[in-house]
Amino acid sequence: MARFSVFALLAVPWLLLAGLVSGDAVSDLEKKGRPNIDAMLAKSKTCTKANLKVRREWGDISAAEKKSYIAALLCLMEKPSKLNPTQFPGAKTRYEDFVVVHMQQTMSIHNTGSFLSWHRYYLWAFEQALVKECNYNGSHPYWDWGRWAQDPEKSPIFDGSDTSLSGNGQKINHRSSGIAPAGNGGGCVETGPFKNMTIRLGPVSPAIDPAPPRNPRSDGYGLNVRCLRRDISNYLTSRYARTQDIAALITNSRDVLTFQNVMQGAGGGGFGGAGGGGIGVHAAGHFTIAGDPGGDFYTSPNDPAFWVHHGMIDRTWAIWQSQDTNTRIQTIAGGTSMMSFGGGGRQQSLDDNIDLGIVGDKVYKIRDLNSIVDGPFCYVYE
Predict the structure, then answer these.
(1) Sites in the chain below the pLDDT cut of 70
(2) What is the distance between the alpha carbons of residues 256 and 89, in angstroms, rounded to a whole number?
(3) pTM assigned to the model
(4) How far apart are CA 94 and CA 76, in angstroms?
(5) How far apart are CA 4 and CA 339, in angstroms?
(6) Are 343 and 273 in contact (CB under 8 A)?
(7) Closest by alpha carbon to 323, among 248, 246, 250?
(8) What is the pLDDT of residue 267?
(9) Rounded to an integer, what is the distance from CA 237 to the centroid of its chain?
(10) Surface-to-core class of residue 84, CB atoms within 10 Å of its CB (0-12 exposed, 13-18 middle, 19+ buried)
């Protein structure tokens, strides 16, 4: 699939401003906005302090909590798919049901007005599956890119221990095929809880060298058995996903269109890059994991690290919203299709529906998915 830039944003001023921010400025912004979230919580008809969940960073949860989350992931990977096996022969497990839904809707959930709300609901639905189908009793963790920006491989997320989400791929000779130079892996993941994970769906838009075997079906839904591959390095996180970069994204975005476009910038590369040369935290996280399926625009949720990455995407949006809840909760900008860049196509509406099909509990309007303490949601970040 050809990759393209969607909005011509100038990234250089953002990078210069980012350099002026230091320390854990993101946590400071989170604390600054928390009273506004608490005020919303007090008025919520569906969320109370009694059932409020707290989402924490992977490095801050205990070893037992990490193992509980990992066990729930592995459980979901063992439960049978609920999809039609003739239509989706590559989806054998309940976990892969989530991958298929992302594949089906990829072109309408990136560089669109629903990008943020869709992925918020998607992550929450995944968390609900872990809880209801695999007896997970925790909240969903996230990956603070800035905290581990200088050496993600040595972070507790990717260090390959039994409390990690597995380590890097085996180091092999390979070339760059994404928006970063070739990393320190490229081969099959051989450490940690997911070292024996089987990938079946895709590829659809691979960004790894050597390329994975082609799927027997052009839509990527065929059965295509292979290993989980990664190519982790610090190239992107140490340049574009530091704490100061995240803080600059939050503080310099005066409207949601700017926020989501800068966040999705991919330097003209993959993952629906909206920045005309800038690399945002969305692409930086995905291409730090890289590999197969992590670097595939369509099938990236098939890598277990996808979920903690998008936990941080959601956290960053929630912090941005909390700075001015009067104007930043019920606001939307962008079209309804990734192909309608440049202002073409219908604009997204707060009254548009989001339907996750086989993995969602119901169809919601976008306006019902914009607050973390209202509608179906009841959680905060810490």
Answers:
(1) 1-23, 267-277, 340-345
(2) 39
(3) 0.92
(4) 6
(5) 10
(6) no
(7) 250
(8) 65
(9) 15
(10) exposed
